[in-house]
Amino acid sequence: MREKNDKKLQWAWAFYDWANSVYPLVVTTAIFPTFYEAITTQKTEAGVVITDKVEFFGYLFSNTELYSYVISASFLVVSFLSPLLSGLADFWGNKKFFLKIFCYLGAISCGALYFFDVEYLELSMIPVFTASIGFWGSLVFYNAYLPEIAEPQDHDKLSARGFSLGYFGSALLLIIILILIMVGGMNARYSFIMVMVWWIGFAQYSLLKLPTYTNEYKHDKPNLWKGIQELKKVWNELKHIKLIKSYLGAFFVYSMGVQTVLLMAVLFAAKEVDWGSDDAGKTGLIISVLLIQFIAIIGAGLFSRMSKKFGNIRVLKVAVFMWVLVCIWAYFIETPVDFYVTAGIVGFVMGGIQALSRSTYSKMLPETEDHASYFSFYDVLEKLGIVIGTLSYGLIEAMTGSLRNSIFALAAFFVVGLILLFFVPKHDWSKPTTVIE
Fold this sequence. Notes:
Growth Hormone, Chain: A; two-stranded antiparallel ribbon; 15 helices; about 75% helix
């Protein structure tokens, strides 16, 4: 394993954010949601909605409800697979192998969205499902490199660098796509092919530079039971670290809200905000998404600097409280201007809370070689939180007939998460497992 102060290696690690962040921006936030909502909603020539119901395996769902369920199912799969595979990755010492598998699965699935056809909805939702698994599955092994390539005092800065590269790179591709669509007349379907090429192409730099084996031992034959044993060992260690248990409890709850907002915000805006004509609405949504991306770059850097001065947990409390205020404001938004204001605030706090949550956890880890297994607990909690968040979002819409009412659930997640952060023990960051009583 290389030295932790290897700057080239750290840049190579952060660059994977540049490669894969086009998926959450282009596919789950900007282009695909508007594309999906448009082809699954029947409207009159005047733009009046006739129905947003779709048939899926003989059952009727609203289009956004179905989308939330498919995404929830993908996170359940990731939650099941990542602990098993991360245990194996630590035992073999080969995180890069699994990083590649999920990277290629996610990217190729994005390309397959080119063939999305509402007449074959069951088949068309498969790449939506597998692209999510590929992206989020790869992050388990990507995040696990962080404590191995940087000292604890550098985790906040390096984590923020990764997110900032991701925000900028994905925004750049989105701008290129928009120019090709609006000026060149390109069909939006080709944007999914471009995401695949960008993701796989730029990931090669990270995959080339990141070390293959990080442990002194490796085995040539698969041993799933050994992977489970690795997880059991980590769980037994985790039970005795009050700091990490307390933090993961708070993270589990507030991440339900954060990730659900990121996944469902555009679909919410498409249905609940009066954008005027369809073309104006699509343009307005894309502008808001770009606004989020660029402000998120500022947020990630600023929150990283604030954490050095005030401490990670204090800054996270501020971030979660800001999310509570965003939810209250979002319930009342009706106009595009209202949504632009919301998007600006969301972008600022999104960049900060994502980067800081990851680095805070990495700084808490004890001395260990089982980083992938430790990060699998972090990842599983995040994914199970997303399952609860997106399911709640879809179910509340199904029961009340309005996405707007789902905001109450998101606000509750943030309020409870904020309360739990106050129970995280004070911590000496120079000694990752030392709790100051």
